[in-house]
Amino acid sequence: MPRPTRLIEPHGGYRKLRSFKTAQFVYDLTVIFCNRFVDRYSRTRDQMIQAARSGVQNIAEGSMASATSRKTEIKLTGVARASLEELLLDYEDFLRQRGLRLWDKESPEALAVRRPSDLSDRSDMSDPSDFGALPPEAAANTLICLVNQASYLLGRQIQALERRFLAEGGFSERLHRARR
Asked: Which long-range contacts (CB under 8 A, 24 or more apart) does 56-60 make?
């Protein structure tokens, strides 16, 4: 007798994803950055914080939606990446408008930020790694590096989701197979 097909596959698990941890770290640091360097009444401040938050929330929402829709998971993971791209432009604007240097991606400073680290070990969430003490140029560039990391990870995640969808199909295909 064939084994019954499970219609609702395991889903969620987003808290273990490096893309989620990196996006969440970007969100936490963006709040600190905006509190220090962006006028509290500025629309830009609200937009930056919301773009960072959207990156995190859409990863979570997509992961949970994967139970019944891989298409929605792919779409929301793409939305998370797009939100982080919006945030990236805000940090680049911040540097340009103040005449501050944008680090080259191979600069010693950027390479130091990009060194692997364990994002789950952040004991002081109020100001991780003394981020709040960095000067504006270093703070914005650090966040640019982290946003780029998160975007790269999300791009890889989207590719993996696409491959899985093409190989296995989605919820509708599982329903059809189960009924046959």
From this structure: 56/20, 56/23, 56/24, 56/27, 56/80, 58/83, 59/14, 59/17, 59/19, 59/20, 59/23, 59/154, 60/14, 60/20
For the whole model, what pTM was predicted?
0.84
CA distances to 30, 69, 169 from 148, in Å? 14, 27, 30
Q: Are 70 and 165 in contact (CB under 8 A)?
A: yes
Report the alpha-carbon distance of residue 122 to residue 125 in Å, rounded.
Answer: 6
Of residues 106 and 127, more confidence is placed in 106
Distance between CA 25 and CA 9 in Å, rounded? 29
The CATH architecture that domain 17-112+135-179 belongs to is Up-down Bundle (1.20)
pLDDT digits over 71-118, tens only? 899 999 999 999 999 999 999 999 999 999 999 999 999 999 988 776
**Measuring CA to CA, which residue among 152, 132, 155 is closest to residue 144?**
152
How many residues are there in the chain? 180
Domain extents for the chain? 17-112+135-179
Cα 164 to chain center, whole Å? Answer: 21
